[in-house]
């Protein structure tokens, strides 16, 4: 029987980028541009508002907070006195809103971006039409030194989103949301990332070929996918999985994936075999295994990921399940 998550917090816009830091859950609200902290009791505390909408979060070794400004194309640093200063300017690199970010124990930051204006496209077109040739634009992950300088760029990826560092620190696993896969990138000696390697495919190879096909099979597949893009249908589907936020399981080997296509988090092994599913109330954008005993799965869920509509609805939630 599938586990079902329970409500922890409600009334949010687009909760995302779940982190556990100093005994509390932290997250950004992409619709309202705010960063929040929740200690597990009462309501979440609003820590700060970020110009250009808050995105990915992380901390430098000395405890200073790094936070992405999605629309400004920057990473900000919060100094000890609370002042926000520019840590890195990525405007010359990104093709769309800056997104999630991983900060490693040395303070190096890995920052993804949409690659294009995803929400502008999906307000006018079904999501499946993104795959009409030439397909969605690809974009690199920016690798930043602890001081904010650019160490390098990865090869272009398809919507690089949530990221994890392996336990031994030798590689970063990236969720390529629009490619419906998890990708492993080895860490070079200087902190930059090497050539991408497959970690887990989350869509069948046949369906992937069809949805990207330039001819009639592709047009039919994309049109059928658009017709099936309905919450009632998605709720009853098991595949594919569009990975958004990702989190290591307690075993340190398998990965929990927030499925942006439907209300669930799925646990997958290397190669893509699905091991567990936890049902959530709506589409899931971020997940985290943490808590005071390290065995709670937190999930950020939304009725819509469009920040304009979400800011009006305030239907975003944090949900949680005991593992």
Comma- or semicolon-separated keywords:
323 residues; mainly beta; 5-stranded mixed β-sheet; 4-stranded antiparallel β-sheet; 25 strands; 43% strand; globular
Please give a structural write-up.
With 323 residues, the protein is mainly β. Helix content is 12%, strand content 43%. The chain contains five helices and 25 strands. It has helices at 118-124, 205-211, 216-228, 231-235, 307-313, and strands at 3-4, 6-12, 15-21, 24-29, 34-38, 45-49, 54-59, 65-69, 74-78, 84-89, 98-103, 109-113, 142-144, 150-153, 160-165, 171-176, 181-186, 197-201, 243-248, 255-259, 264-268, 274-279, 283-290, 296-302, 316-322. β21 (264-268) and β22 (274-279) form a beta hairpin. α2 crosses α3. The longest helix has 13 residues, at 216-228.
Brief summary of the model shown:
The chain has 323 residues and is mainly β. The protein is 12% helix and 43% strand.
Continuous helix count: 5
Number of strands: 25
The level of helicity is: 10-25%
Tell me the major beta sheet. Answer: 5 strands, mixed
Work out the strand percent: 35-45%
Terminal residue distance: 14 Å
> Radius of gyration, Cα only, in angstroms?
18 Å
- Spatial order of strands in the largest sheet: 1-22-21-20-19
What does the overall shape look like? Answer: globular
Mean pLDDT across residues: 95
Order of helices and strands: EEEEEEEEEEEEHEEEEEEHHHEEEEEEHE
The unreliable regions are none
């Amino acid at each position: 029987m599938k586990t079902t998550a329970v409500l922890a917090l409600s009334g949010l816009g687009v909760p995302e980028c779940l982190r556990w830091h100093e005994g509390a859950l932290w997250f950004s609200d992409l619709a309202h541009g705010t960063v929040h902290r929740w200690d597990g009791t009462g309501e979440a505390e609003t820590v700060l508002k970020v110009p250009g909408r808050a995105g990915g979060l992380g901390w430098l070794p000395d405890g200073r907070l790094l936070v992405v400004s999605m629309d400004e194309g920057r990473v900000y640093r919060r100094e000890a006195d609370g002042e926000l200063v520019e840590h890195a300017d990525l405007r010359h690199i990104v093709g769309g809103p800056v997104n999630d970010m991983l900060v490693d124990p040395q303070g190096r930051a890995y920052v993804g971006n949409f690659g294009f204006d995803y929400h502008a496209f999906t307000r006018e077109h079904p999501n499946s039409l993104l795959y009409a040739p030439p397909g969605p634009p690809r974009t690199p992950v920016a690798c930043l030194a602890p001081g904010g300088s650019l160490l390098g760029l990865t090869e272009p990826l398809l919507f690089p989103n949530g990221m994890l560092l392996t336990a031994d620190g030798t590689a970063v696993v990236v969720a390529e949301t629009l490619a419906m896969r998890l990708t492993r990138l080895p860490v070079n000696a200087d902190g930059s990332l090497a050539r991408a390697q497959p970690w887990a495919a989350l869509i069948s190879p046949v369906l992937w070929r069809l949805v990207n096909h330039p001819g009639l099979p592709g047009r039919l597949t994309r049109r059928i996918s658009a017709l099936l893009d309905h919450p009632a249908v998605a709720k009853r589907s098991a595949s594919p999985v569009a990975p958004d936020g990702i989190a290591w399981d307690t075993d340190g080997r398998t990965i929990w994936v927030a499925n942006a296509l439907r209300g669930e988090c799925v646990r997958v092994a290397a190669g893509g075999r699905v091991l567990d599913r936890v049902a959530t109330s709506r589409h899931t954008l971020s997940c985290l295994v943490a808590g005071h005993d390290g065995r709670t799965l937190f999930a950020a869920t939304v009725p819509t990921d469009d920040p304009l509509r979400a800011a009006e609805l305030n239907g975003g939630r944090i949900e949680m399940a005991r593992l």
